User: Fold this.
Amino acid sequence: MLGISTQALFGQLLLGLINGSFYALLCLGLAVIFGLLNIINFAHGALYMMGAFVAYLLGAYLGLDYWSSLILVPIIVGAFGMLIESTMLKQLAQLPHLYGLLLTFGLALIIQGVFQNFFGSSGMPYAIPKVLMGGYNLGFMYLPVYRAWVVVFSIVVCIATWIVIDFTKLGSYLRAATENPTLVRAFGINVPRMITLTYGFGVGLAALAGVLSAPINQVRPLMGADLIVVVFAIVVIGGMGSIIGSIITGFALGVVEGLTKVFYPEASNTVVFVIMAIVLLVRPQGLFGRTL
Assistant:
């Protein structure tokens, strides 16, 4: 196959699925925040990085293991996100989207700068839990257990989130609160609190991706900045605010990026943006976005 070994091909497919897992979780968080709150959250990459750092610090200073961090980190970083929404973003609720984007972009630079000042730019290792170490030789490729866990766990989280938002009463309340908050208040629902919790949930998904990424990509202040532009491109391709679109395009474009590294490595860093340009020309609302 064009001089490419089967092992190299499946290795890149696995790498693409792993990157797709991170893309899908981050895109999902962005889609939840934009689709339900109409906030373009440019701080998402910095909060993803914060998730990895909080997991590292919990392990280094409190001795908490990976499994504890997987539960606690999304809650801690999500609470920080709720603080951001309730003290800053809420003040911009009636203004155009550009103001929220500029605020979150500034917050991203501040958060990134703080961590870079305290920890430097070099990466710090984060250990894979013992139960997920090692791998299996499948004959055509070697499958590391931790990487397989990341893919499966990400799929489960993404599907569960999609089901909750699109098919439950809670999800219907969330969607209604963004479209007609006055009517939802009439049912005795605290809309501002719901909006704050939703933003915290979206941020928590980014932090969860950070914990999953830490053992693979190390913990670095710039790890979020490396991903966020690609993630926004994927969100645009899937359709801004589309939950299922973010999940499918996140995984799919991770695989496309991985295969591009096999067949045409020079284009691997730009293939997502080329696809974005084509999609915008053919279908401006994105593949799964609603026609305005």
